[in-house]
Design brief:
There is one protein chain. The protein is mostly helical. It has a single domain, classed as Growth Hormone, Chain: A (Up-down Bundle), CATH 1.20.1250.20. It is 77% helix and 1% strand. The chain has a two-stranded antiparallel sheet with strand order 1-2. It starts with 8 loop residues before the first strand and ends in an 11-residue tail after the last helix. The N terminus and C terminus are likely disordered.
């Protein structure tokens, strides 16, 4: 079980000052965040292309996101078990290799013109990313001052957003241009290029030194998934990740089709792909800003404001036409910026040896990206795309509620009367003193 402290890290740089010790691992991990963001956002371009090519309904086309994010549900907990035996570096390398295999499977899928093979390739690809996520999130949280864990994860998420901002440009250049120029499916081309890049990153990870976080033997009760999920701020945090990822993915999945509606300007697929970069670019700007602001403003306040704004912007988009509807929906990306790292950090608060299990559960909750888009797809087939955005709006409403009650959940966890070891665990393993947590 990992601990959220630098005192248990073993490396040749042990005697270096803490602020320097983790610079290299942080840079290496940041490259992973960038890479899987770059790959994941290509789904948003793949959906309209395969929808037309295979003549799919909105619900059927959302199976792309379903298969991709279902891999998180299926593989996250096995990934946490693999992490126990292979360590962080070995598990990350395995994740990269699995990811590369998924990329290369796009070639037979395109050659055979089979939609199920595309879905299978996406599942394999996402399985590798799920393993990397289970490793990278808690490792990044442990790389330095524990009180700044949310800020570090927000910085890593900014690297992820840089990937999601550049990804649509790359996809539009290759995937859409090939399809337009040659009249056939060009979906496999960017994935073959990315497969080679992922293999190169795997080689680089083999060559660099990553300090390993020391494991602590825990009792069967401590390592029980059920016992971790029963902790209020963990259980509700898992649902928070489910809602956030589901809402963010669902909005991105429908943007190109949404912007093509006559009432919104009837934008071309290529123009909509360019605008998709603004949606994910907003998250990049917000994460850079959020990493700075959360050093001074309590994280739960920032989360509450962002989720309220996202809810309001979706209402505006559903009730508007033209550029008001387009612009308000694009601005939701800015509100999404700090949500994942903030909810994740709040959910693993003070868990000591249970952190690994909690990380696996939180990554499992990314299955929201599989479920929510399919629900919205069903409503889009029935009510129309614009009205279907009520689904992600409901997700943000839940996050508002979570941000409102998280202070009481943390205070209850700190209370010796409720959990006698919580205060000791926080002081000894995270360096965080309960009295130094300030809520407003």
């Amino acid at each position: 079980m990992i601990t959220m402290t630098t005192s248990h890290v073993r490396s040749s740089t042990e005697m270096q000052p803490p602020r320097f010790r983790f610079n290299r691992p942080m840079l290496a991990l940041s490259s992973l965040f960038f890479l899987w963001g770059f790959i994941t956002v290509l789904n948003d371009l793949l959906i309209p292309q395969l929808k037309v090519y295979f003549q799919l309904s909105y619900t059927e086309s959302m199976l792309i996101q379903f298969c991709f994010f279902m891999a998180y549900f299926v593989m996250s907990m096995p990934s946490s078990w693999l992490l126990r035996y292979m360590g962080y570096k070995g598990s990350m390398q395995i994740g990269l290799l699995i990811c590369a295999c998924g990329c290369f499977l796009f070639y037979p899928a395109a050659e055979l013109h089979q939609y199920p093979i595309f879905l299978g390739a996406l599942f394999v690809l996402a399985s590798g990313i799920a393993l990397m996520q289970v490793c990278a999130n808690p490792y990044m949280a442990a790389c330095g001052d524990p009180t700044q864990a949310a800020s570090r994860l927000t910085f890593a998420a900014a690297c992820n957003s840089l990937g999601t901002t550049l990804g649509p440009q790359f996809g539009a250049l290759l995937m859409l241009s090939i399809a337009a120029g040659f009249g056939n499916l060009g979906a496999h081309v960017p994935y073959l290029i990315l497969g080679g890049l992922v293999l190169l990153v795997a080689v680089l990870f083999h060559c660099i030194e990553l300090p390993e976080l020391k494991s602590i033997t825990a009792s069967a009760t401590d390592t029980s998934i059920t016992s971790v999920l029963s902790i209020p701020h963990v259980g509700l945090g898992v649902l928070g990740i489910f809602c956030y990822v589901g809402a963010e993915v669902s909005i991105g999945s429908f943007l190109i089709s949404y912007f093509a509606l006559p009432a919104l300007g009837g934008l071309s697929e290529h123009t909509s792909a360019q605008l998709l970069s603004f949606y994910w670019g907003g998250a990049l700007i917000g994460r850079c800003l959020g990493a700075y602001l959360m050093r001074f403003i309590p994280a739960q306040i920032v989360l509450r404001i962002c989720s309220l704004l996202a809810t309001t912007l979706l209402v505006i988009s559903m009730q508007s036409q033209g550029w008001w509807a387009v612009g308000s929906l694009l601005l939701v990306g800015l509100c999404n910026a700090i949500m994942f790292p903030t909810i994740f950090t709040m959910a693993i608060f003070g868990l000591k040896e249970r952190t690994r299990q909690a990380s696996g559960l939180l990554c499992t909750a990314i299955v929201g990206g599989a479920i929510i888009p399919v629900i919205q797809g069903g409503l889009a087939d029935t009510w129309g795309i614009q009205s279907s955005f009520v689904v992600p709006m409901g997700c943000y409403v839940y996050i508002v509620l979570y941000a409102t009650i998280i202070q009481k959940l943390h205070q209850k966890w700190q209370s010796p009367a409720v959990h006698p070891m919580a205060t000791v665990a926080m002081k000894s393993t995270t360096g965080i003193k309960p009295e130094n947590f300030h809520y407003s």
